[in-house]
Write a structure and sequence with these properties.
The complex is a heterodimer of chains A (about 240) and B (about 400).
Chain A (H helix, E strand, L loop, with lengths): L7 E10 L6 H9 L17 H6 L2 H13 L9 E5 L5 H12 L6 H5 L5 H10 L5 E5 L4 H15 L5 E7 L4 H4 L9 E8 L6 E5 L13 H11 L3 E4 L2 E5 L2
Parallel strand pairs in A: 2-3, 2-4
Antiparallel strand pairs in A: 1-5, 1-6, 4-5, 6-8, 7-8
Helix pairs in contact in A: 1-9, 3-6
Chain B lengths: L7 E9 L5 H10 L6 E7 L2 E5 L19 H11 L2 H11 L4 E6 L5 H14 L8 H4 L2 H11 L5 E4 L5 H14 L5 E8 L3 H9 L23 E8 L5 E10 L12 H14 L8 E3 L6 H15 L4 E3 L2 H4 L6 H14 L6 E2 L17 E2 L5 E2 L5 E9 L3 E9 L2
Parallel strand pairs in B: 4-5, 4-6, 9-10, 9-14, 10-12
Antiparallel strand pairs in B: 1-7, 2-3, 6-7, 8-15, 11-13, 14-15
Classes of the chains: A alpha+beta (about 240), B alpha/beta (about 400).
Chain lengths: ~240, ~400
């Protein structure tokens, strides 16, 4: 069987946003001297219709900003999408959980906007996108498994690129005390293709590193690795090798 | 189209309102009696709901994995326990690092989080036995991976009601990419206050048993359950041959009324499997019994298949198990294929009041005791359409 290497993906384009690190040159500066990312703040997402923007949670603004920032206008409705977020809308679910326990009526809109694929659904609506879309979580491995899920999309249809968006916001204190992680508000979009002009990375399961050992999220560590031009990145059991 | 390596659905464990083993589930599915549903007045204040609750006792999460001890993981455990022998055999053969886990859920351990919030209200702090790993979506796959002792990738898909179908699709790709030599994949969902009250607020839940495709249909009946498959990259047995996916770009909690997204998913699955519509012998409908779903789905099915294909919704018997539904309904298709003899496929009946809706295309709804003998390989399809407009259709095949 000939064809593209199934574990290889080219990064065709990227866009990332974290409070204070909001464009390419800022990220290049960050990659040269990385530091923990900010906890508070979210993008304006001024490209969204006002009606939709008003309803957007900080996470939704981050996700949609990363997605729209990565894609050219004529790509938005055509790419397949993978959304990787460890916590998703759990901060908003806390309010609903209190309402359930207090035996109060839930808001139907709030309920339908706290499903784990809420940002995926809102992206598809905002972008007029009817292509395949997936949403996932994998605890500390969420970024790597998001990459892997995007590879499964390329396995199914190698000809068509996939947008991977990884994003999270700091957990509400109710749960934050139970989780050890480098909390941050951030969103990273990567447009991945099985062929293309962008740098290519072979993915493997031979990593020997410790997950989450750097004081910023895995997605930011990947971006640092991408910009630094390094040959190999290991995040936990997952590895990326830059293809020659 | 590129040649795809085989993907065998080699073993199945299943639990839902019908029972906690494959044989009981299959027997009760064929009976077409929703008698396993039960009334519950604790979920939605001031409302008595008929739900597909699992009444069989669930296995306890072992003490070593206490941080994962929640009902949703017990549900997954009940399904996994049924395939422990073949999974252990595969693990010993290919090695722990070559086994992956892909699970689906829409609830994870929300029901236990609710208990913990009640504890907080009454005692001023979260229940000490509560761990975030029970609530976060990634916890389900992590639990399954750690329980089995596998060190391959483990992730949880959560695309509402298509989660379980997507888990099987990703598992197949993981094998095809050569990153894993065995994958445990499936889904689990648990009845809980959050989703039940959420669907109640959306006015999506009917009184009594859901009544899909009827002119009297008035909403869904909720349920819970789990299914777990062992997938191997080998020929023979029952194969996962088709995956079709689409989004709707329409609405967060209502399907595209034209059925365009559903149609795209079904056509995509046929294309992926290299099949024509007439090659399919049976379709398990998403069939939630909400006015909008059944209208758009029946229109889409009629456009793709015409009106001769036997179809049924199994949700009146099991309830809508949300994130688990895609895996459970793939399990029902698997059971039909696994138990077929001499090319005869016994079909799960469509349980309803028999009153056709003149507004929607008349499909061939499977009656009790009905079977088909298509001749040649047996191929069946299952539809899953989720909140946020996320659709996934699967095709399963057994060669004869």
């Amino acid at each position: 069987m000939s064809g593209p290497t199934p574990t290889r993906a080219h990064v065709e384009r990227w866009f990332a946003w974290s409070p204070g690190v909001e464009d390419r040159s800022a990220w290049e500066g960050w990659a040269a001297a990385p530091r923990p990312l900010a906890l508070e703040g979210h993008p304006d997402a001024a490209f969204l219709p006002a009606m939709l923007r008003r309803r957007c949670t900080p996470l939704t603004r981050l996700v949609l900003t990363a997605a729209f920032g990565t894609l050219a206008e004529n790509e938005r409705s055509r790419v397949r999408t993978v959304f990787a977020t460890r916590h998703g809308s759990i901060n908003e679910s806390i309010e609903l959980l209190h309402a359930v326990v207090a035996q109060e009526r839930l808001s139907p809109t709030k309920f339908s906007h706290t499903v784990h694929n809420a940002q995926a659904g809102l992206f598809c609506i905002a972008a007029g996108n009817r292509e395949a879309s997936s949403s996932l979580a994998a605890r500390a491995d969420t970024f790597a498994c998001g990459w892997l899920e995007a590879l499964t999309f390329l396995e199914r249809e190698p000809e068509s690129p996939v947008l991977l968006v990884t994003s999270d916001v700091p957990l509400d204190p109710t749960f934050a005390v139970l989780v050890r992680e480098p909390a941050a508000a951030y969103g990273l979009g990567l447009l991945l293709g099985s062929s293309g002009d962008g740098p290519a990375f072979d993915f493997d399961l031979a990593g020997g590193g410790e997950a989450g050992s750097q004081p910023w999220p895995d997605a930011a560590e990947f971006l640092r690795f991408l910009l630094a031009g390094e040959a190999r990145l290991e995040l936990g059991r997952f590895g990326w090798t830059r293809a020659a | 189209m590129k040649a795809r390596p085989p993907c065998r659905l080699a073993a199945l464990g299943v639990v839902n309102a019908l029972g906690a083993d494959a044989e009981t589930v299959w027997r009760r599915l064929l009976s077409g009696e929703p008698s396993q549903l039960s009334w519950n007045d604790a979920l939605v204040p001031g409302r008595r709901l008929l739900v597909g609750a699992v009444s069989d006792p669930l296995p306890e999460v072992p003490a070593t994995f206490a941080r994962y001890a929640c009902r949703n993981n017990q549900m997954a455990l009940a399904a996994l326990a049924q395939i422990e022998a073949p999974v252990r055999e595969a693990l010993a053969r290919v090695g722990a690092s070559r086994v992956g886990v892909v699970m689906g859920t829409s609830t994870s351990g929300v029901s236990d989080a609710e208990d913990s919030f009640r504890h907080q209200r009454d005692h001023g702090g979260l229940d000490p036995s509560f761990d975030y790993a029970q609530l976060e979506f990634g916890g389900l796959a992590a639990f399954v991976g750690e329980l089995l002792g596998v060190t391959g990738p483990a992730w949880t898909l959560s695309t509402a009601c298509s989660s379980g179908a997507r888990a099987l699709a990703s598992a197949r790709s993981l094998l095809a990419m050569g990153l894993c030599d065995a994958v445990v994949a499936g889904a689990a969902d648990t009845l809980c206050g959050l989703t039940t009250n959420g669907f109640a607020a959306l006015q999506a839940i009917c009184e009594g048993v859901t009544n899909p495709c009827s002119r009297n249909r008035a909403g869904l009946t909720l349920g819970e359950g789990a299914a777990a498959f062992l997938l191997l990259p080998e020929a023979g047995g029952i194969q996962l041959t088709g995956v079709g996916e689409s989004s709707e770009a329409h609405h967060m909690s209502a399907p595209d009324p034209t059925g365009g997204g559903a149609e795209a998913a079904m056509r995509g699955a046929l294309r992926d499997a290299g099949l024509a519509p007439e090659d399919i012998a049976y379709l398990n409908l998403h069939g939630t019994g909400t006015p909008l779903n059944d209208t758009m789905e029946c229109q889409a099915v009629a456009r793709v298949f015409g009106s001769a294909l036997p179809v049924s919704s199994t949700k009146p018997l099991v309830g809508h198990t949300l994130g688990a539904a895609g895996a459970l309904e793939a399990a029902f298709c698997w059971l039909a294929l696994a138990r077929s003899e001499d090319g005869v496929l016994e079909l799960p009946p469509h349980c309803w009041d028999g009153e056709r809706d003149p507004e929607i295309p008349a499909l061939r709804l499977v009656g009790k005791g009905e079977s088909v003998r298509p001749g040649g390989p047996l191929r069946v399809m299952t539809n899953s359409f989720g909140f946020g407009g996320n659709n996934c259709t699967l095709v399963l095949e057994r060669s004869t």
